[in-house]
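Lecture notes, structural biology module. Today: joint structure prediction for complexes of two components.
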Amino acid sequence: MLDAKIPAGPLDDKWTDYKGHCKLVNPANKRKLEIIIVGTGLAGASAAASLGELGYKVKAFCFQDSPRRAHSIAAQGGINAAKNYQNDGDSVFRLFYDTIKGGDYRARESNVHRLAEVSANIIDQCVAQGVPFAREYGGMLSNRSFGGTQVQRTFYAAGQTGQQLLIGAYQALERQVALGNVKMYTRHEMLEVVMIDGKARGIIARNLVNGELEKHFGHAVLLCTGGYGNVFYLSTNAMGSNVTAAWKAHKQGAAFANPCFTQIHPTCIPVSGDHQSKLTLMSESLRNDGRIWVPKKQGDNRKATDIPEEERDYYLERRYPAFGNLVPRDVASRAAKERCDAGYGVGTSKQAVYLDFAAAIERYGKTEVGKLGKDNVSQEEVIELGKEVVKEKYGNLFDMYEKITGENPYEVAMRIYPAVHYTMGGLWVDYELQTTVPGLYCLGEANFSDHGANRLGASALMQGLADGYFVIPYTIGNYLADEIYSKAISTDHPGFAQAEKEVRDRINKLMSIKGKQTVESFHKRLGKIMWDKCGMARNEEGLTQAIAEIQALKKEFWSDVKIPGSINEMNPELDKAGRVADFIELGELMCKDALDRNESCGGHFREESQTPEGEAMRDDANYMYVSAWEFKGESDWELHKEPLLYDVVKPSQRNYK
Amino acid sequence: MEHYNMSLHLKVWRQNNSRDKGHFENYKVDGISSEMSFLEMFDVLNERLITEGKEPIAFDHDCREGICGMCSMYINGKPHGPWKSNTVCQLHMRAYKDGDTIVVEPWRANAFPVIKDLMVDRSAFDRIVQAGGYISVNTGNAVDGNSLPIEKDKADASFAAAMCIGCGACVAACKNSSAMLFLSAKVAHLALLPQGEPERKKRVVSMVAQMDKEGFGACTNTGACEATCPKDISLSNIARLNQEYLIASLTADK
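The predicted structure, tokenised, for the full assembly:
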């Protein structure tokens, strides 16, 4: 079932050879070929723009009111590229190697190498579009280091890199809309993939403004619908981010790969109460200067400033002297959870740890005093000078923290806690980004391909744009070249009618339940099961329980959910109900996948697989494969394994002690 | 920060669709924590309405971290509410005290028809961008990113304009419903960069024409847009727009 179609030959040459030999579609034929793109984030907008430029007839869909709203817009830190502008030894190979290692040796070498190869083109393309990256006084592009890499390869636009890149792609997309090459459907949600003669041939979409179902034909369908972090209810994802499009594709035969690989980001603002609807990320750059600690005494209710130095436990510095506060995301997250679970958490919820800038403020203050050549400086003055420096570096993040919590982080230590941030799993795709369904492609966070078990910082933006600008324009031609004889299929075809009927029946079923519990309440309960039992740490017992609990929750949902309003109108609760129903099914599969993978790797810690010191232990002998799950029926999946072959990189155990 | 609970009196605009006349509806909400965000307060109210068998209030929102530009509520006469440089989703309930009355309306502008309740149609902004808010470069044509140095000051000014989130608060704040701040931010973003130079004149003329066609009002320089902008987009962008437009109209080939 799984043919990754990895080109033969040395790793360095695979992509070049592929491009030199893939089939092409002549311009006259491109005009006759229609492509449907679902989702308009970095992957979708860049693909829609690029394919429109090539001359294909593109239809793009998003559920937001404008393609510019997609959640790629919220990415803060930056985008990696192997430009080596800093002359610090970066190269395509190093970016490739760091990504494979960071992913804990669970990604495909060929795909990651291609990603590193095209990374430099992405920066050039974005600059040409007018993306205002940060620059040096000499007019050159500025770089910073990110996520513990040893080279400076991250390009950025203040703390809004995702926004600027998305606006670049959005503008390119709108240009194609103006030229008539792309037709844009906003406030539309894809609810089914239409299959005709074993190939994806279109979609059923619901117009969210009037509730009408629409049938759209395409010679190929591209899903660029982002990640599924909202299965946990609370995450850093946008409220509307969902798995529905990918899940419908999965049920039509597309294998879902590594669903249990999720990334928990260590520095987020903690939950403040039951009303919490989402979590906000604070860039991990804060860990460059902040020190993380909890009180040494359990249940210590004193204010942070009242706890003397000797009664504080700087647990990351204690456990990982070599990396200290800069250990990778997964390690930092697990350590925070461990302390809180053991009763050392702080704040009203006790589900938080301190991120303290007092030491950094003093250190920077002293440096400033030295720079200014001052004598007899009071401690207050040193602190004031230090605050200025910290403000310059992290001012916007500190402001955001204060807006949300009402606390001034210059005076009081910040409280942080890990939160779900990114999902490495997604639809299984081959080298051409095609799923196991012919004609159905998957790009960006929605696919599984490039990050293995853990994603490095500043790599998500890179992958989304690589897939959309530089990979799919080649690989889709290889498929569509054989489709030039296929005429557009009328949406009166029984295949469309059948798919539409299924969608209609499902909506009717949802609306006819007329139960007592709100959609939101089910989503919250699902999130709690997932977070407690399939979150940062998992074990066999918990996962087995979780599967039973989710199955029971599913039953309860389909017999007692309450959805107000009606079908043929704008009805956000109905939209949400469909998404939560899919999340429930996905949750079960995630637990099944986590149960199968009896090893700790990347962001996922399997309690049965740890070293005597309690560190994560990977099991290459038994689990060096991609888990690709084929949907067989309700609560029934078959596992297919794609072995991971490392021809170039030698896997090693990560160590941060 | 001390946390507290409050009861509030809400007057919320309800409107079934663009043809409906619409009206204010009164709601009393209790047990609202000062730690909640403004939209979470609406979540609480909506959950209650659903349980009571009533229609929840429709409002636009997505990222809830102040960057997607989707949220849009006109609160006590101010787009995005009382805090400066802020979107509704980042407004927190500690801005209010027990017993307060809060009036919530949608963006009010002819060019932004109401879809339902507090949700409006801002597709006019997309069409303004379609009229020229881009640099015409196809994928794959780009030269090396560092082949064209850009003065840091210009790059920074371009970025400051490009920070616009397209929420439409500037239009809602303006007594003329003018879209000049939005449009000028896009024109400035691209005009400040050498990459934007080839289409500079055509772009501004065509975007302004589209803005007029959409039914936005004229600018009378009151500055309400700048005061309400969640991203602090400067009024000086409008001055730049006027200058760009004047030069283009006088010198562009017709």
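Point to remember: The first helix of chain A runs from residue 14 to 21.
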